[in-house]
Design a protein that fits this description.
By secondary structure, this protein is α/β, with parallel strands linked by helices. It contains twelve helices and twelve strands. It has a seven-stranded mixed β-sheet, with helices on both faces. Strands 7-9-8-11-12 form a five-stranded mixed β-sheet, sandwiched between helices.
Amino acid sequence: MIELGQADPRVVVLGADLSDSTRALWFKEKFPDRFFSFGIAEQNMLGAAGGLSLAGKIPFVCTYGVFLSGRAWDQIRTTICYSNLNVKMGGAHGGISVGPDGATHQALEDCALIRVLPNMTLVVPCDYYETKKATIAVGKMFGPAYVRFGREKTPVITAPDTPFELGKAAVFREGSDISLIANGYMVSQCLLAADELAKEGISARVINLHTLKPLDREAIVKAAQETGAIVTAEEHQLIGGLGAAVAEVVAEECPVPMAMIGIRDQFGESGSPEELLKLHGLTAGNVAQTARKLLARKKGR
């Protein structure tokens, strides 16, 4: 955000009483006249962001994803997306790995709520560098955009020079037997699962589907055609999330056996990130075991 602010004086940031947690205060320290605090009033904040965009500013709204997508959904839909306003949103605390904060603060439904909206761009980056690139990229495009990121430390699996393009999936590992498609934290787990499967002679393709909207249908169809089986993995409800988006494409374009890893229609709970990820089956071991079972189905067709 500071880099964007230095490059473009139109960039402003809006916070909702959580700017220390989301680190938006770093922008305030650098550009105090371009930071606006709204307190616990998310709907008002999104309405103001729409107004700022109409005045020629590029507003970035940041708060926890569960409050942003839930409390202010009407303003996001009717004020921002319906009018195709140039408002950017940062949804923090995405996923179950938020940990001790529990169900009220764990955004497990935000991608489903945001993905359904016309004109919206939705990005779920996999690590630090990709989050930085996604933030800069949505700042340079025109139209509504939502970037989802977590709270806990996440393995760094990309580099400053790793290519990133909105709407374009990235193949992080080639493979011919099965495709593992993920975003966010689960990309790192799929890479570890692919290493585990390789020891058994299984060739797994790992695809980072960081942009959920617009969706890279071509990459999904190619994976289905070339590997014949797909496992999706996400730190989100299975209903309406990454797996559902991939399944929509597969069902229409190239039906193949699929399995989905994610939160199964339940709320989160308090616990350490490690405990919760293990409890909900979001580990590399879970991905590898799901891939083995799916390959058995593939061979039995």
